[in-house]
Amino acid sequence: MEKAEFVQIFMKFTQNLALFGALLFFLGMKNSVPKRQAKKKAPKSKTT
Q: Residue ranges of the domains in the chain?
């Protein structure tokens, strides 16, 4: 009984951890992409 409960809790925990990690990864990528574009645009505006 205890082992089965532990497995269920462990599965829920791993799923939530994976979702949370994916969310952080998505937000990190979303925030990093505009910064890279802004850095690329800045030299172009200076040269023109």
A: 1-48
